Amino acid sequence: MDSKLIVDPSHRISKIDPRMWGSFIEHLGRVVYGGIYQPGHPKSDENGFRLDVIEAIKKLNVPLIRYPGGNFVSGYNWEDGIGPKNDRPVRADFGWQSIETNQFGLHEFIEWSRKVGAEPDMAVNLGTRGIDAARNLVEYCNFEQHTYLSDLRRKNGAEEPFNIKLWSLGNEMDGDWQIGHKTASEYGRLAHETAKAMRKLDPSIELIATGSSLHDMPTFGTWEETVLDNCFEDVDYLSLHQYYGNEDNNLSEFLGKSEDFNNFINDVIAICDAVKARKHSSKQINLSFDEWNVWYHSKENDDKQELWQKSPQLLEDHYNYEDALLIGSLAITLMKYADRVKIAALAQLVNVIAPIMTDPVSGNVWLQSIFYPFMQVSNFGQGVALTPNTEVESYKCKDYEVPYSDSIAVYNEQRDEVVIFVENKSKQSMHFKVDIKNIHISKIVEATEFAGYDIKQTNEDGKMKLNTLSKIYISDAGIDAELKPLSWNMIRVVVD
Question: Residue 29, Cβ neighbours under 10 Å: how many?
């Protein structure tokens, strides 16, 4: 089978915002307690932060972390997580029906995120709370003048403001499962008024309005339109969430979910631009795909969990090889929309539907299959995404025509480097040809493949790894490579 990609640096989509490769930390299951925070563990520092987990996270080069939820935020009082730990209340978390000790809170998160080198995307509770709690949180975090709340921050150990620049206005408010679920009109008005109050305190912040939780939500489309009718001029981004599963055990259909992902993004862009046109506005609303992943393996086990536990083992999907292939394909899709998708968050980061796991028995860290493609795009999907002019056969799924390969090139002008990501979805080997226009390849820096694993293989034993892509050749015309069946590949070349 043949696949062709034409690479021309003059055909540009947009510079990729580094925040596209963000992630997500929620007070859910073992994300925080037993994940990033575990006082007394041999590999924890004096603050209780797991240093082995931080080391793994740094390999992902995550620039942005959304916190503290998720469903959790819609019932959360941020004040519970500040001040002396002995004085913090233990609460019933209604979002996940767990017990929250509040031993890890706002100050701990800010300090921890600085250790991993990430900026925060702070979510505010628009479920059980609203304008007052949100404006108070901004004042506590970002205000420089001496007020009761800014001085309370200083009293709690932070003399300088946290200077949080990105804020999410609630979470999945379109979902009836959400505490404080609202209609689109109710949420849109609340987002408008909350945004006004928050910007009064800090005009420099960026705000994300809550879009549809899934592409197949019955309110999809009308939700986005109504919300933006209310708060178009108040926000900078609209969020999207989407998870995929393979409950039917159909590999072709599963890998074809990238087409649904593509269509979801395209549909939301169209809605944003329709509202813009109707309002005669010059403002462009961009997208924050701040929850995306595979999620289905753990659901049967979650249904058996006893309620009201502290940090129970919830949503602990053990990802297999086919999951990693879909993650790679979804990442390529995000880059294809670099002109509009500026923020994204692989949900989540540790233990809960995550690339990084901590074993509760041995205490060790292990890396999931999805870690490897995400690590490569987060580190090398930096620069300008080039328009993918491709030629490849496709196959028919239930809902979509699916190309047998996904590919895109990224031009990193600072490194004089072009990085090509390509996935072979076929069960056959693929001859992959890259035609290079208007630049010259001088050498291959790196060529790797993630290939050869059974589609149901997981990585608890730590044997998965990236290998050298050996059958690759360069010439003045471009690149020729032989891609293994069902493989994820990355090629880095120096250009002049």
Answer: 27
Beta-carbon contacts of 82 under 8 Å, excluding residues fewer than 6 positions away, are 88, 105, 106, 107, 140, 152, 156
Q: b/e string for 353-368 if b means 16 or more Cβ within 10 A? A: bbbbbbeeeeeebbbb
Which tokens belong to 422? 């390509």
- As annotated, the active-site residues are 172, 291
Q: In what order do the strands lie in the sheet with 478-483?
A: 389-392, 2-7, 430-436, 478-483, 472-474
The alpha carbon of 195 is separated from its chain's Cα centroid by a whole number of angstroms, namely 23
124 backbone dihedrals φ, ψ, rounded to 5°: -110, 150
DSSP assignments along 40-85, one per residue: T-TTB-TTSBBHHHHHHHHHHT--EEEES-SGGGGG--GGGGSS-G
| Opening angle at CA 154, ends 151 and 160, nearest 5 | 110
pLDDT by residue for the chain (496 residues), tens only, comes to 999 999 999 999 999 999 999 999 999 999 999 999 999 999 999 999 999 999 999 999 999 999 999 999 999 999 999 999 999 999 999 999 999 999 999 999 999 999 999 999 999 999 999 999 999 999 999 999 999 999 999 999 999 999 999 999 999 999 999 999 999 999 999 999 999 999 999 999 999 999 999 999 999 999 999 999 999 999 999 999 999 999 999 999 999 999 999 999 999 999 999 999 999 999 999 999 999 999 999 999 999 999 999 999 999 999 999 999 999 999 999 999 999 999 999 999 999 999 999 999 999 999 999 999 999 999 999 999 999 999 999 999 998 999 999 999 999 999 999 999 999 999 999 999 999 999 999 999 999 999 999 999 999 999 999 999 999 999 988 999 999 999 999 999 999 8
Q: CB burial class (10 A; 0-12, 13-18, 19+) of residue 42?
A: exposed
Degrees, nearest 5: CA angle 445-22-223:
130
Residue 74 tokens read as: 């819609």
DSSP string, 122-180: EEE--SS--HHHHHHHHHHHH--S--HHHHHHHHTT--S-----EEEE-S-TT-TTSTT
Q: For the residues of 244-262, what is the DSSP string, one character each?
A: E--TT--HHHHHTHHHHHH
Residue 170: count other Cβ atoms within 10 Å of its Cβ.
27
Q: Which of 67, 17, 24, 58 is nearest to 345 (CA)?
A: 24
**3-class DSSP assignment, residue 38:** coil
Is this structure's pTM higher than 0.90?
Answer: yes
